[in-house]
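Archive entry. Fields below.
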Amino acid sequence: MTTASAAVQTSENPGGPSANAAAARQVTKAYGQGETRVTALDAVDVDIQRGRFTAIMGPSGSGKSTLMHCLAGLDSVTDGRIWIGDTEITGLRDKQLTQLRRDKIGFIFQAFNLLPTLNALENITLPMDIAGRKPDQAWLDQVVDTVGLADRLKHRPTQLSGGQQQRVAVARALAARPEIIFGDEPTGNLDSRSGAEVLTFLRRSVDELAQTIVMVTHDPVAAGYADRVLFLADGSIVDEMNSPTADSVLERMRRFDGKRTS
Amino acid sequence: MLLKTSLRSFVAHKGRMVLSLIAIVLSVAFVSGTLVFSNTATSTFDKLFASTASDIQISQAPAKKDAGAGQGGPSAKTLTVPASAVQQIAAQPGVKSAQGDISVVDATLVNPKTKKQAGPVSGAPTIVGSWTPGPRSPMKITSGAAPAGAQQAMLDADTAKKAKLGLGDPIEVIDALGTYTYTVSGIATFTGTNPGAALVFLDVPTAQHDLLGQSDVYTSIAAFGDGSVSNDQLKSEALGALGSGYQVKTAAEQQADGSKGIGSVLDFMKYVMLGFAGVSLLVGGFLIINTFSMLVAQRTREIGLLRALGGSRGQVNGSVLIEALVLAVVGSTIGMLAGLGLAQLLIGLMKLVGMNISSSLEFTATVPIASYTVGIVITVVSAIIPAFRASRVAPMAALRDHGTPSEGASNKVRVIIGLVLTLGGAGLLVAGGLASKAGTGGSLLGLGVPFTLIGFVVLGPLLATGLIRLLGGFLPKLFGPAGKLAQRNAMRNPRRTGATAAALMIGLALVTGAAVVTSSMVSSTNSQIEKQVGADYLAFANRTGITPAMVAAAQKASGIDHITEEKYLPATFTTPDGKTTEAEVAAESSTFAGDFHFPVSSGSPQDAITGGGISVDETFAKDHGLKLGDKLAIDYGKGRTQSLPVAVITSKGSQIFDGHFYTGLETVTQVVPADQQPVDRAFYGMAAAGADKGKTYQALQDALIDYPQVTVKDQEGLKQLFQANVNVLLYLVYGLLGLAILVAVLGVINTLALSVVERTREIGLMRAIGISRRQLRRMIRLESVVIAVFGAVLGTGLGLAWGVTAQQVLRNSGLDTLTIPVVTIIGVLLASAVIGLLAAVVPAFRASRMNVLDAIATG
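PREDICTED_STRUCTURE:
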């Protein structure tokens, strides 16, 4: 089932497969034609390093969600090239993209991450079920243990709190050992305590399980958990910060806002 | 304001309304079509009969009520009036003119060139009579001349055209007196509507000689008044002048008789059509309930907002009902107009079977009244439940929730009501099946059917969870995650699944029940034919009866050992308990006792046929306390009576012997002389010992080649003939099933389409985490199949219960063998899976084409 990704190795990931889990070169995304043309992403270059926690920040309309959707193969690009691991995903057909998402990518959305008809465990193993793969039981146990859900596995999503639901989503993203996990404001709907819990798990999965994570957020506190923050504005990457803290991110955001208004 | 909201909402959801609209249109179209058709037909024939009836018509009073002349049955001799009566009537005061007419319906018209019948084989009759055009004759000669002399006959134009006969061509008329050949001398055309009969006219002396075998007699007298007295008065004067033994009918009575004859054909059509209307209404009702439930569920927020802003429950109710009303009015209007097309179609269909109905449709006020009433009542009644559910939504809950309202407290009530109805209904069915009397059993069955049906509908949502867990148990194993998700999805809204499946359930329950009954009928009859019929061949001519010439021809066929003749004579039976019964005596040749194996309860068949006795069935014997040897007084009318001892009592449950009284032809001839006896109803043939049965069958058919009106069958053919009769019934049931399924499929599509819309975000999520389009489509297809099969399982289960009960009820009325049509049932279940697949095509396609990003971003 995983042959499609191997078959489409058209060219190498510019940063090298060992270093980069994902990469984008000159990615442009535009909507509409002629005068009504709106450019959401403008010739963006990004390298997502393996085993690190990357946050993408920016004001509303900066193109941060579009960038994530394009990197994750959920959206097509107007121009440019994108790689996930060794595989160039620009130009792939829906079927191959679907397989790629299934086998190599994990997702955590802001809300509505779980299928209401399946219990927590079934939701966690769904991507592997879809692929027809048997989950690695030891790994599964470790993931479930890490997110602290061992006693909630038989519960339906409606019987779980918002924080618990997001932790199930994190577990699902981790369980299939994807090359990369994309989070789209994963804590956006949570109170600060539950949010902190979820972010801690994400941090631990990077530190302890060597997972690669890309997270879109507008919350400096959330970005403070990352190894690296990319700042996006008007469809371009305008800045980058390594080993951020909530305060330094906030500070940079303020400066950035100030720059814009001046 | 509220009206505006409703109308806007209706327009906004018009896509979702389409399927409900189709259901309403279908039901209303059948109602309106039926009305327009029967109005048009009735008015056509009323006009025809009104314009052609004489002021009074005189004929001989039939000896027995059930065997009047002109009814078409070959059971009685044609009744005549003497020529002297014509003069008597003509001399009455107030009578302007009187004429004798001759017409018989027991003759067959044959085209000698093709050796085939030239008249209609079924439906309208062939009428051979005298050309005596009165002042109100519906026909005029359009080519050639009126028949004159023993060699000439005139045909009606439609028959001539259909049989490709023209002036100078030979035609043959076969009746009890013999076979007569004529030359077509003229063609007469109906000035108005032709009701479909074939008409052959002879001159009066020829008609008297060839049709009645006597001179100076007529079959009826038509008299016309001079306008000075009323028809009723003319009638009483005529009765007074002629004395007893005559019946006189006024123009109004003739018209009523005529309309009644045609009416029975039309009534049948009407009931079939109304059956279709009823089924589509019933099934459509579920579709409408579902549509509105889902619309309400999707608009929970909107309704909550309305309520939060101060809208009252009544207003919320009202807004949903107004939407329903708009739907009903639109649907009824389209349906009513579609009904006109349907009526036109039916008229065309009737023309094919030879009945010409005016093509200008009769559109009376009842048509729109009935159409709108049916359409509005069914729609609004179906929408009431969802409307009330909508008004119960709490303002804040509505604003918070975006899912479907949860089900809670009502479940308990539902279980109790459902169980009471189902168990009560099941009890009624069991009691019905065990009842000793078919009548009692029938009424218990009649009560049990609606009880179990409603019970199942009420329990449907609860059964859905359990049964789908069971039915769908193999899905995860077989189809992986798509199977698992499909199974879960089918169970997640049991009320919706239940209502969707209920539509299919009703149709399949009806057809399964009917299939059990009909296949039991076929197997029961087959086994009875095998057990009780010893004769190798059977011949009959429904319209005209079997004439002596035919019997003579059959006897000459090589390989035939003997022919047994059978006549039926209407009679009044007086039993020793003093009660009288109107029935027919079956008079048989002496060989009958050997040709048929009587299911003897007691006595000897031989004594009944050759020993001057009579056979009665067990039920009759029991009802009248008859024992062997008890005497039955039999009155054939006109003073011909005899008293016969009961020689054999046949055991009940035989379709051949129940309700029949068999005796010997010789016995009957003692009081009814041969020349007063009717022609044979049928004859049975036995192949000689050692003769090849197949060859003899062929020889018999060849011997009767000159009589195309005779149907010859061997035992196998007899079974097939019966099966063909049953099949007609079955096709009707299949037609109903087809319609029910059509509407039910609309319901499944409806449910799936709305579910897909509701689950947009879920679908987006699944696509994001890697479910392929194929898997998604499969998931929706499987959900659809599960719902359909669930409905089919409930339906066939219910239908089996009904069918088995019906067979048990009728076990002593000829339906003694229970046959479960396993192949049909398996076919129905498989078909339901296919239906599920078909219904899912469009919703699955739409789901798989859904844009992942849009789906994630929604709401």
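CURATOR_NOTE: Residues 62-244 of chain B form one domain.
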